[in-house]
Amino acid sequence: MPIMKRLNQYLLCRGGFWNYHRRVPNAYRELDPRGTIRTALNTDSLQIARARRDALASADEKLWRALQSELPSALDAYEAARERAMALGFIYIPAEELAAQATMDEILSRLKKVETSSPIVTVQADAMLGLVEPTAITITKAFKIYCEKICAVDLKGKSDTQIKNWKKVKRRAVNNFVAVCGDLPMNEIKRSHARQVYDWWSKRVNPTDDSKPLHANSGNKDFTNLKTLFERFWAYQGDETRENPFRNLRFKNVIYKDIPSFEPDWIKNKILASSMLEDLNIEARCLVYTMVETGCRPSELANLRPEHIILDHDIPHLQIRPQAKRELKSKSANRDIPLLGVSLQAMQACPNGFPRYREKSNSLSATLTKAFKARDLFPTEDHRIYSLRHSFEKRMLEAGLDYGLRCKLIGHYNNRPDYGDGGSLEFRRDELAKIIFDNINLSL
Hints:
Blueprint: E1 11-14, E2 17-23, E3 36-40, H1 46-68, H2 74-87, H3 95-101, H4 104-117, H5 121-128, H6 139-150, H7 160-181, H8 191-205, H9 216-236, H10 264-271, H11 282-294, H12 298-302, E4 309-310, E5 317-320, E6 335-338, H13 341-349, H14 361-374, H15 387-398, H16 403-410, H17 425-432
Antiparallel strand pairs: 1-2, 2-3, 4-5, 5-6
Helix pairs in contact: 1-2, 2-5, 4-5, 6-7, 6-9, 7-8, 7-9, 11-13, 11-15
C-alpha cells in the first residue's frame, strides 16, 4: 500500500459520503487522460473510506507503473484489478466463474460501475468483469506475499528476533517443498505434489539405512505451515473454496519426548556448587541462578528491562511484561514473581538485567548449553537448560503449592475458573519460600 502523507489524503466528503479524489501525477499525464480522479466510495464511514482509498491508490499506482513500463508486471496487473474491485464494493471474480455463477443483477451492477467510474474504461471493466488472468505466482513469491502482506498484522508486536524465528520455521517448509517439487506456481500445486513431500519426509522419519531418523513432529510442522500458506494465500486472492492439497497429511502416533527436570540435589550440589560457573560471564551465570528460583523462560529473563526488575520493594520481584516490540509467548505469561534465595542474589548483581543477551536467544542458548556440557551438568542427553524451569514446577508441586498459584508463577494457562489475581506478592513469596535452596551464598 502507498504511504499517505496525511491520514485523509485523497479523501473528499460531499453530502456526507466519501469520495476518492486525486490528481494524476504530472509524470503520468500523457499516459492517463483522467486528469483528476473522482470515484465515489459509497460510504459515510471514514474508516471504511480510508480502506477503500488505500486500495484505489495502490491500484492506480500499479496502473501507472504498467502504463509506463514496456514489460508491465502480470502480478501488478492482477493485484491492481483485485484491489480496484474491492475498493468499489465487489469481490474480484474471474470472468469464467462470473459467467457461470453470478446472477444477472450482479453482472448488471458491475457493468453499471464500469459505465460511471472512470475514463479509462478498460481498466475498470477488467476489474469488474474479471478479465485479468491470475498471474503464475510461485510458492516462493507467494511466501513473500504471505510474510509482507497477508501476515503483516500477525507480526505486529513481535520483535525483530521473534519475526526472524517466526519466518525461519515457515521458510523451511517452503524450501523443503521446492527441494522436492521445484518452485511451482501456486495454481499448479496438486495433491500429488503434497504426497511427494510426504513420501520425502517419511523416508527421513523412518530411514532404511543407518542415517539418524528425523522427528516426525518436524514433518508435521512443515505440513501445517504449507497448508496454512496455501489456505491464506488463496483466501487473500479471493478463492476461499480452493481445495487444499496439504489437507490431512500428518504423521500419526508421534511420540513427544518430554524434557526431564533436574533433581533438587543435582541443582544444589552441582549447578549451585561453589566455583562451578565462576568462569562464565556474569550475565549468563546470573541468568541461570535466576531461573533456579523463578522458573522463568530464558528468553523472558534475557529480555527483561530495568523498569521490570523491582528490587527497592518490601518484596523484591520481577514483572514479566510484553513490550512495545516484543510479545510474550501467551497471555498467561504476564505475571509478577517474587525474588528469593539465589535468584534474589543474582538479580541484585544484575539490577539492569542482561543486556548482553537481549534479542539474542540463540547466542544465550548456545553459551549455556556449551557451558553445561563442558562441566557435565546435564545428567542425561535429554536434559536441557529448560530443565531448570521444569524443576521449578516440579518442586512447587511436591511442596503442595496450589495448582492455580503454580500456573500463575510458571506462566501457564489455568483451565480452572479464575476468581482472583493469584494472590498477593506477600502470599506468593511465603509459598515460594517452601521450595528455595537454603544456605546458598553465591560469589558474585
